[in-house]
Amino acid sequence: MASRTSRPRPAFRCTECGWTTVKWVGRCGECQEWGTVVEADAAAGPRTAATSPSRAPAVPIADVPVEAARAVPTGVDELDRVLGGGLVPGAVVLLAGEPGVGKSTLLLDVAAIAAMGGRTVLYVSGEESAGQVRLRAERIGALAPSLLLASETDLGTVLGHVESNEPDLLVLDSVQTIASTAVEGGPGGVAQVREVASAIIQAAKSRNMPVLLVGHVTKDGSVAGPRTLEHLVDVVCTFEGDRHSSLRLVRAVKNRYGPTDEVGCFELTEGGIVGLADPSGLFVSAAVQDVPGTCVTVTLEGRRPLPLEVQALAVPSTVPNPRRTTNGLDSSRLAMLLAVMHRFAGLRLDQQDVYASTVGGLRVSEPAADLAVTLAVMSAARHRALPRGTFAIGEVGLSGELRPVAALARRLGEAARLGLRTAVVPASSAAQLDPARLPAGLTLRPVHHVAEVAELFFADADERATR
Fold it and tell me: Where is this region: Lon-protease-like (predicted)?
């Protein structure tokens, strides 16, 4: 029997993630975006023919010049730390963060420093008028003759400013407010953001002009707009901070020219944003006397060790289900630690409200802070302060054992620099340390289990409670 010739079925493709389907649907089955599934060309095989390289023929990799691709410092040390040394010519950097966190202030400061250094900088604002940006520049001392300012929302006009002024640095605030008349849809739409990003990237690569883009974020903290925006740019940085705190953190989520485990610390003040080269003391309280319910730990933000104080409070509950309230800590992690303390340390808190918080507003998700949270809760429940100068680093498992942590030597060195002298650490991590390289005056208290921690600091308190 002769086989029937199969006709090519029409295909539909998602413009966001590339997911394909045989029929049109309103919502992508992969990335769950609405209105991104369009009909794809059903022609089989590639349509682009090979051509001879006209502008840049292939050369041996050792003969490729690298001087033009070296990073140029921005003048803001904390930002250079995150970027990997500075801005690479032709690089496109996307800085995303919540409204009011200080993105525009930071980039205006970077633009002013570059302009004061003799470079021509074009600052395009699509959210504020030129007068509003000028007032902010005057407040933070960012007035420079070669800092050019334009308030535009049309992509063609922005590219015209780039053609006429030929800047050495372009700052675009923000990519979601710029739109092209050649593309349908309003500013911030999927097609508009993709068109704006593609045009700006092409201009940056052709001119070896670094570009700083400001991006909005959604409710869950991810970059607003199509996912392809993060793929197109070279560097993606997130700007984090609490409205009630002056501390700001810049993290590199993606970086083609440097590491992605560095964190820059800034302080937002009335006179602008200031880099914090040594932010260690911001997260430790300056109590003049020993207070129950506190314990210091050392977390890693990227590769930077930061001493952090954890505070806990345990009070009798007035409701059938006791409260478990956290600030800066994971609530589910606290619940797990309370269960471990109940099972292996004999600490019953089923009729008490437990509150746990970090000092300074820093949010901690690293498991190495488990031991400090455990000691803080034990100290609060037994009304017994830890010895002055004591800090704890370690991850607590469900069976009560203490697991090793990374970069313990670096954490111990930072704690010793602040005057902390007694370290409670997992025994498995302490066995890997070289005693000759420990900071002078530092005493290690290796422990294997949560029960040992309770016996080490609160054994006499438990004996008095049972009498």
Answer: 353-467
pLDDT digits (tens, 9 = 90+) for 174-218: 899 999 998 888 888 888 888 999 999 999 999 999 999 999 887
Looking at the fold, whether 418 and 290 belong to one and the same domain comes out as yes
147: CATH: 3.40.50.300
Q: Which residue has the tokens 């993290």?
A: 251
Q: How many angstroms separate the CA atoms of 345 and 390, rounded?
A: 20
Tell me, what amino acid is at 87? L
Cα–Cα distance measured from residue 244 to residue 311, given in angstroms and rounded to the nearest whole number: 18
Residues 396-444 pLDDT 10s: 999 999 999 999 999 999 999 988 999 999 999 999 998 888 898 899 9
Same domain, 269 and 289: no
Q: Among residues 216, 214, 233, which one has the least CA distance to residue 225?
A: 216
Domain that holds residue 114: 69-277
- 270 with 287, same domain: the answer is no
CA–CA distance, 164 with 166 (Å, rounded to integer): 6
Query: The whole model's pTM is what?
Result: 0.76
Annotated binding site: 97-104
Helix, strand, or coil (residue 442): coil
Q: Are residues 273 and 192 in the same domain?
A: yes
Residues of the chain short of pLDDT 70, as ranges, are 1-10, 41-56, 286-289, 460-467
